[in-house]
């Protein structure tokens, strides 16, 4: 890992009787996002956060603040920070592998935060053995340890030349999908509507490339800040047109290119119809005259 990145955690991985040192680095960061300060509109000055006693309304300095658990309305048990620290499990700084599982076994709704795992100077061979062994077996490792003052379950997977460790949410932290979807009506789509949806999906197939994804929100914020600095007109949001249920089939047809294809065909207008009729009459008249001319020499003289 580059020297300008600081390890978030250093410890060991143990699988079977093999133990080797590793370092944990943040894989995703929000430090590049645009951030705002809270400003007093009247003065233009930055606002500082101050904690106020809910009853006396007096400011409470940091050294007089502590933790508390509400047992009744407005009644709290005081919890000292040292008491909280005492409840944290002892850590030997070891990610001990409990099991190897198929990579597809873990629903990604349990994924929390990703971290890169790299070996220390002495653990390169053991690290590579674990990485390549998991690649060949197409498995991931489940391990547990204390990370950032909490006991965490971690999913470890091969990733490029190294490993990626993703902390997992506990089961009680993940909300039930059944409850989330319980009010959804039972709708079965079939026939032309389903065929059109499948057709549109087939024409939009691609590959995952995160480099092509722009953070439009950050770009919009940057444009907003620039416009304010330069005194220009502020960008206006585009109105989103939502497809109505009655127009859904038409929207699907248009998405599939059917409406455009129909529109590109020559339209049968009244003028075209009349012109075609005139041409047909003229053609019939010409044919009649030609037929008469051919039959004239065979007529008997009176």
TrEMBL record:
Under the heading InterPro entries, the entry gives:
DNA_bd_Ku70/Ku80, Prok_Ku, SPOC-like_C_dom_sf
Biological process according to GO: DNA recombination; double-strand break repair via nonhomologous end joining
Extract the SMART domains matched here: Ku78 (SM00559)
Report a single Gene Ontology molecular function: double-stranded DNA binding
In this chain, the stretch annotated as Disordered covers 260-302
Q: Which Gene3D superfamilies match?
A: 2.40.290.10
Alphabetically list the UniProt keywords.
DNA damage, DNA recombination, DNA repair, DNA-binding
Residue ranges of the Ku domain? 57-186
| Pfam annotation, one family | Ku
Summarize subunit and interaction data from the UniProt record for this chain: Homodimer. Interacts with LigD.
Query: According to its UniProt record, which protein family does this protein belong to?
Result: Belongs to the prokaryotic Ku family.
Q: What does this protein do?
A: With LigD forms a non-homologous end joining (NHEJ) DNA repair enzyme, which repairs dsDNA breaks with reduced fidelity. Binds linear dsDNA with 5'- and 3'- overhangs but not closed circular dsDNA nor ssDNA. Recruits and stimulates the ligase activity of LigD.
* Protein name, as recorded: Non-homologous end joining protein Ku
Question: From which source organism is this entry?
Answer: Rhizobium giardinii
- Higher taxonomy: Bacteria, Pseudomonadati, Pseudomonadota, Alphaproteobacteria, Hyphomicrobiales
């Amino acid at each position: 890992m580059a020297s300008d990145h600081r390890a978030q955690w250093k410890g060991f991985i143990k699988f079977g009787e093999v133990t080797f040192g590793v370092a944990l680095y943040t894989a995703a960061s929000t430090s590049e996002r645009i951030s705002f300060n809270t400003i007093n509109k009247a003065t233009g000055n930055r606002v500082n956060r101050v904690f106020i006693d809910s009853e006396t309304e007096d400011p409470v300095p940091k050294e007089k603040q502590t933790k508390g658990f509400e047992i009744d309305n407005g009644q709290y048990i005081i919890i000292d920070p040292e008491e909280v620290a005492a409840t944290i499990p002892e850590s030997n700084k070891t990610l001990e592998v409990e099991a190897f599982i198929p990579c597809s076994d873990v629903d990604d709704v349990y994924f929390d935060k990703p971290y890169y795992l790299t070996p220390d100077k002495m653990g390169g061979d053991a690290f590579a053995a674990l990485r390549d062994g998991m690649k060949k077996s197409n498995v991931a490792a489940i391990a547990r340890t204390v990370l950032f003052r909490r006991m965490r379950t971690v999913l470890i997977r091969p990733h490029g030349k190294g490993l990626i460790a993703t902390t997992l949410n506990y089961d009680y932290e993940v909300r039930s999908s059944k409850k989330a979807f319980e009010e959804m009506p039972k709708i079965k789509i079939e026939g032309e509507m389903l065929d059109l949806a499948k057709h549109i999906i087939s024409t939009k197939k691609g590959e995952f490339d995160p480099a092509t994804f722009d953070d439009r929100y950050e770009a919009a914020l940057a444009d907003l800040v620039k416009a304010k600095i330069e005194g220009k007109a502020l960008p206006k949001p585009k109105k989103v047109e939502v497809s109505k249920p009655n127009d859904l089939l038409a929207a699907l047809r248009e998405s599939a290119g059917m409406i455009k294809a129909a529109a590109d065909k020559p339209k049968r207008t009244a003028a075209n119809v009349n012109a075609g009729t005139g041409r047909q009459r003229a053609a019939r008249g010409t044919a009649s005259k030609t037929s008469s001319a051919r039959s004239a020499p065979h007529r008997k003289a009176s």
